Amino acid sequence: MTALQCRDVTVGHAGVPALDGLSLTVGAGELLAILGSSGSGKTTLLHTIAGFIPPLAGEIWLADRLVAGGRRTVPPEHRSVGVVFQHYALWPHMSVLDTVAYPLRRSGGTRGQARSDAAELLGDLHIEHLAHRRPSELSGGEQQRVALARALARHPAVYLFDEPTAHLDAPLRGVVLDEVADQRKQQGTAALYATHDAAEALALADRVAVLDHGRLVQLGTPTEVYERPASLAVARLAGPASVLAAEPGSRDRTPRLVRPDWVGLDRASLGEGGAWEARVTAVAFHGPHTDYRLETEAGELLAREPGPARFSAGERVRWSLTRSWPLADASRFPEASQPATDVPKLA
Ligand SMILES: Nc1ncnc2c1ncn2[C@@H]1O[C@H](COP(=O)(O)OP(=O)(O)OP(=O)(O)O)[C@@H](O)[C@H]1O
Is 41 in the pocket of ligand 1 (CB under 6 A)? Predict the structure, then answer.
């Protein structure tokens, strides 16, 4: 059973294409993450599915109902979608409790029941204390959680989330992500979840659709997208990436993607372990793990180990690879050998 289908959807903003012949399907109960950098078309896609933007071409189906395409355009309020967008669009005159109770009442609940269910949802999202405030009295993150509660209260056929954790700090992010996961488990509702945060997409999604300049460039499970990206651009979007000119010791000259967790490190002084030598050029301790920048003969490499730092900058280490992945298109980008990382270079 299919919850949502986009068939060859093309959308333009003032004549400039923002989505280009995009096709994808979301199964019943599936969470599909839309991963893409800023401007890749994530919001445009969600707005088109919600009915705020008409497609120039193509069709959108919600379950077995055509909602956009041909001559048909079903208005947003008649599409069974629950939206949580970056701009939360809360009703300024309504209290938080009434905002969340409203969709519950519209779906047939009594006033008392709707308010009590709404209060429970607010509790789940840790905002019960805000029940009687209006949107103008809330922070950005609080407004975002109210918008999420309102969408969850609608019990729609499909959720559309556009970076719903963008204004939240790490612990609140966890609360919101847990709530999204719980609600979906209970209701079995399909969801599209747009984000530029690879970690979030990989952790939450059943499958990940990667957008680049309005085109779908890869669709796969989180593991496929992380371990076997279709291009250098996808490799970089899906997580920390180093690109070696070639795998050391191999005749194959295809550039290789190396994720930091694919690198094993040993002390050079022990003269054993890893196959090749490198120099540590920078170290960044992140709490649960430590990242190292390495200068190797095949290029710069990022390595990650659990726990505190075992090596210091300047030290020589031996390293080995548990795996690597060929990235043929990386040879066209000389800058690919610079790992995208938050481990600062030393002067
Ligand atoms: N109202 C608009 N008018 C003109 N161009 C627009 C409009 N909205 C978006 N665009 C353009 O369409 C493209 C896709 O934008 P979109 O907002 O869908 O990207 P996004 O992936 O959601 O980005 P972000 O992560 O920054 O929100 C961009 O090039 C953007 O500049």
Answer: yes
